[in-house]
Amino acid sequence: MQLTAFSPTRTHPFSEYLMNWFGKLFSETPSEPPPTYKENAVVLDVRSPSEFALTHVEGALNLPIKKFGKSYASVVPDKARQMVVYGDAEARSDVATQFLKLQRYTNVIDGQSAADVARHLNRKIV
Known about the structure:
Blueprint: H1 13-26, E1 42-45, H2 49-54, E2 61-62, H3 68-75, E3 83-86, H4 92-102, E4 108-112, H5 114-121
Parallel strand pairs: 1-2, 1-3, 3-4
């Protein structure tokens, strides 16, 4: 077995990917402008029913991430209608947002948390 020496001039493709990703993550210039939230947006809360019962954005629909793949099309059949998704933990909103984009929904915003969504849409948390 022959060992090769580390070469500082040769980089691994995954290392390049990570450096590029970290560069984008910590860059001071945003890659795209912040989304514009529409007043009539459908707000989807992808947390569990028990979390939703405790508190949620006024007017939000509860579509738990565990049942999301089976139910999303019946809840919002219009793929052009704006949807704002939030989940508060474990990247649930990001997973749901990416899923909807893969299903060709064209106006999906990852609202991240209930507080952020309520602030952007000027709605109460109930």
